[in-house]
């Protein structure tokens, strides 16, 4: 009886060893096949490529390189150069090691940010010059006071028609766009030339009543932002007219 048990154990050990040898043999064949597989070159990312960056820019910054990989690992549509996508932008983030596909580039990048509007308010965009936006120190999250100045014409020069006053005492800026340089006529009476005026679109959060006032004022007068510090107290009043300047 004991002899039969010993023979059974020996048989199990022999079977296990045999299975292991077969597995090693199969793996060896697979490894040899892989080693003999031809390698091909494809374009791959070596660093993170952000949405909006062109393929040419990424290549110039060393974020792309030709990499050798097994033929079986090549993704359908993988490129070997940026010739066909040079001026196109990455549609989403491309991470190191990713093969470069034409489908990952296009004419418009996906937005990295979405506009967050405070509950119960609406977004209004205004185009302001650099001085009117505190020389560029206004950023998303800033709180500003909005001043309005009247637009005085040559025939409308009364003290009451020429004023600057607070329109909205505290407004949150929720977006800042890119600066654009525009050509504008010089405001000097004896100068017929034009000057370049940089302007930027800023987006603020307002309730309906303030939004209506700001939109109306932006079309009839001049708006200026004042950057608020923490704890700054703003008291709306009658404002200042030309008659008040020398008082």
**Tell me about the biggest sheet?**
6 strands, antiparallel
Q: What best-fitting shape do the alpha-carbon axes yield?
A: elongated
DSSP strand count: 10
What's the helix-strand series? HEHEEEEEEEHEE
DSSP helical segment count: 3
Strand content: 25-35%
Ends apart, CA distance between termini: 123 Å
Weakly predicted, low-confidence segments: 21-26
Structural class: alpha+beta
The share of residues in helices is 10-25%
| Global mean pLDDT | 78
What is the CA-based Rg, rounded? 34 Å
Question: How many discrete domains?
Answer: 2
Oligomeric assembly? single chain
Layout of helices and strands:
Elements: H1 2-36, E1 39-45, H2 55-60, E2 64-70, E3 89-90, E4 105-106, E5 122-129, E6 143-150, E7 163-185, E8 194-206, H3 208-220, E9 221-227, E10 240-241
Antiparallel strand pairs: 1-2, 3-4, 5-8, 6-7, 6-9, 7-8, 7-10
Could you walk me through the main structural features you see in this protein, from its secondary elements to its overall organization?
With 247 residues, the protein is an alpha+beta fold. It folds into 2 domains: 68 residues, Type Iii Antifreeze Protein Isoform Hplc 12, CATH 3.90.1210; 123 residues, no CATH class. Helix content is 22%, strand content 32%. It contains 3 helices and 10 strands. The strands form 3 sheets. Strands 5, 6, 7, 8, 9 and 10 form a 6-stranded antiparallel sheet that branches. It is elongated. 15% of the residues are buried. About 2% of the residues have low confidence.
